[in-house]
Structure formats: C-alpha cells, structure tokens
Specification:
alpha/beta, Aspartate Aminotransferase, domain 2, 7-stranded mixed β-sheet
Length: 400
C-alpha cells in the first residue's frame, strides 16, 4: 500500500520529530553574528537551559553531537593517565568509555548487561576498593538509548558518598533530558551531557555540558585544556564568539530558542508526565501483544524503563520485517535495535526500538501502535489481543 499523502512519522530515538515552530524559526536568512538580536537571544538561552536540567550552575554548548559532549566533559576534568569508572548498561556506556580511552584515560568497566540497571551497591564497593583515589569520575548513563534502561542517578550519588570517594558523578542525559525526570542539583550530579536532537526537539548539531562547582574545581586543576574544548570561556564569555569557540551555529540557536519557548510554556512537570503516560501506553500495548506471541520488551521491570524510548524484540528477522512493513505501508519509521546484537549476528534483525521523545502526543503514539499492530497482522506474527485497548486505557486514565 502506498502512502503518498500525509506526514511521515520518524519514531526513532533521535533525531526526534521537529515542531513546526522550530522549523519556522530556522527557516530564515543568515543573521549578523557581531551585534544585534542573535547576541541578545543567545544569552537568554542559558537560564532556560538551566531550568530544563534543574540546575543553578553553568552550561557550555558545542557545535557537535552527544559524542562531542562526552569528549568535552572529559577534556575539562580528567587528564590522560587518570582513571574513570564506567558502570555500563548498554552500547552508549561503552561508547563514552571508548571516548575516554581515546583521550589516554584508563577505563575501569563494570558491565551490568543490556537488560538490568546498574547496581549502586556494586559501584560503592568498587569505590571503597579504590583506596588510592585513582578514580576521578564515574561515567553513568541516565538512559541508554540502545537498551532503553533508565538508571537511578540519585542512588548512585548516595553510593559514591557512602564510599567516601571524591569521584565526580557524570551523567549522560542525551536520551533523557526533557523526557525523563532529571534533577541535576537535587541528585548531586556534577556533570551532565546532552544534545539537541532528542528531547530538545532541534536538529542534530548542538552538544551541551552542564557542570557544577566540583567539576569546575577539577577543570582548574587540569594542567591544560585545549582552546576548543575549554568550557570556561563558553560558560562565561567575554565576547559572543566564545559561546561557540568561533562562528555561532546560528540557525540551530534560533531553533533552540523556539524549542525552549515551547518547553517553558508546557512546564517541565507536565512534560515529564506526558512522556510517562505515553510510555505506559506503549508498554501496555506491547505487554498485551506479548501474551500471545514472541514480542518481548527488553526491560522487564517498568521502574527501569525509559520514558523516551522502548526497545523490543521479536524472533528471527521479524524485527527488521516489521520495521520495513510499517515504513513502506504506514509511513512510520521505527529505530533499529542498535547495540543489542552485532550487525553480523542473525539476532540483529530481531530487535527494534520505538522513540517517543520530545514533540509527541497521544494521537501520534496511538497511530504508531495501530500501524505496528497492522504490521503484526500483515506479517502473520503471532500476538495477543487488546494491545490498542490497553494503550488507550493508559492515556484515558490521566483524564479520568
């Protein structure tokens, strides 16, 4: 069935759906980068970014993606030869560790697999065993975009404190910021990294590093930080160009201004609630379908599932077949099962992910679920009944 009319729905875990307001803000001629509205507008982005991260501390932005933010966080705090602890719960924990190794940093991995969250008690013991204080930072992923596990950062902070260890707590919030509840200051996070293309609803191209006083103290103790990665002039610029380390990402900034206006108008509590409700609707549908067939959610415990992205598994090549069916016949693009199996492994074709982050609402999610159910039927994949009804009930409950 062709679908020449109607919008395509990109339901992958980033880039996320871009609001019309963001697109309109970016669709403009290039502005003056030396004086005028762009300079004034950029300064106004900073307090709104702080509000999203729930922090009173500093933020620096970079022209780059989440990988750039990973590197920026490390470049300002951890010298080559020092050690970091990485409690990984999926591909992106290992990705941040790889960036650290590339900077000459010694990485101590604690791999918790792809279906269970990190164990704060285990991290605490590792830190207690580090009697020489060689570990400079704990690099934790709040939500791993591949496994879709959500980790308890507040509990991790308590574990670090209980061990009496001075390590910084760094959090990868790339998939979670403005989707899952994140409270940087209240949870004791020293550094949080994020990017523009997910909950912030802007095209890929901006990376963000939020940092508190303990992290800034670590920056001052560094022998050197390269001019480009140094967050000091970016967070407290004397000239406009220092925000970006050079020419500003002009149109991304206009898009970000529009996105932050939308976030402020809705309110962070309402945004977190919306994402939670829509996530529960997706889980309810998937759980109903799983009762009569091979479909499984990657994370069994709802308490550990992200509200921004959901990883699922079928059998054999059914995941790829379903993705292609809904894309070709319903205009819906689902995410590949990134990091859940290697591309050469036949199981790679079993996994898929559904992104539900940022500019998304009930009719979009219900439409996506309806398309998935149609694909299950069309491909003769066994599944339980009542998936759409269960999803609808979750959404209706919020207004009851």
């Amino acid at each position: 069935m062709s679908h020449p009319s109607g919008r395509q729905y990109l339901a992958i875990p980033g880039p996320s759906v871009m609001p019309d307001a963001v697109l309109r803000a970016m669709h403009r001629a290039a502005p003056n980068i030396y004086e005028g509205e762009l300079i004034e507008m950029t300064a106004g982005l900073i307090p709104d970014l702080r509000d999203v991260a729930r922090t009173a501390h500093d933020v620096a932005f970079y022209i780059g993606n989440g990988h750039a933010a990973w590197e920026a966080a490390l470049a300002n705090t951890v010298p080559a030869g020092a050690r970091v602890l990485v409690p990984a719960t999926g591909r992106f924990g290992h990705g941040w560790a790889d960036v650290a190794r590339g900077r000459g940093i010694d990485v101590q991995m604690e791999d918790f697999g792809k279906s269970t969250p990190l164990d704060p008690a285990r991290v605490e013991q590792v830190l207690r065993d580090d009697t020489g204080g060689q570990i400079r930072a704990v690099l934790a992923t709040h939500v791993d975009t591949s496994s879709t596990l959500r980790n308890d950062l507040a509990a991790l902070r308590k574990a670090i404190d209980a061990a009496g260890h001075p390590a910084l707590l760094m959090a990868d919030c790339i998939a979670s910021l403005a989707c899952d509840r994140f409270e940087m200051d209240a949870w004791g996070v020293d550094v949080a990294v994020a990017a523009s293309q997910k909950g912030l609803m802007v095209p890929p191209g901006l990376g963000f590093v939020f940092f508190g006083p303990r992290a800034d103290d670590a920056r001052r103790r560094m022998d050197r930080v390269s001019r480009y990665w140094d967050w000091a002039p970016r967070a407290n610029p004397e000239s406009f160009y220092q925000y970006s380390g050079g020419t500003a990402p002009t149109h991304h900034l206009y898009g970000l201004r529009a996105a932050l206006d939308m976030i402020r108008a809705e309110g962070m509590e309402a945004i977190w609630t919306r994402h939670a409700v829509l996530a529960r609707a997706i889980w309810a549908a998937a759980e109903a379908w799983s009762e009569g067939g091979p479909l499984r959610l990657n994370v069994a415990d709802r308490a550990h599932r992200s509200h921004a992205v959901t990883a699922l598994r079928l059998e054999g090549d059914q995941g790829t077949a379903l993705r292609r069916w809904v894309q070709d016949n319903a205009g819906l693009t689902l995410g590949i099962g990134l990091g859940m199996a290697e591309p050469g492994d036949p199981a790679w074709h079993s996994f898929f992910r559904m992104g539900h982050m940022g500019h998304v609402n009930a009719h979009m999610v219900l439409g996506a679920l309806g398309s998935i159910q149609a694909g299950l039927v069309a491909l003769d994949i066994p599944h339980g009944r009542g998936g759409l009804e269960a999803a609808s009930a979750e959404i209706a409950a919020i207004t009851a």
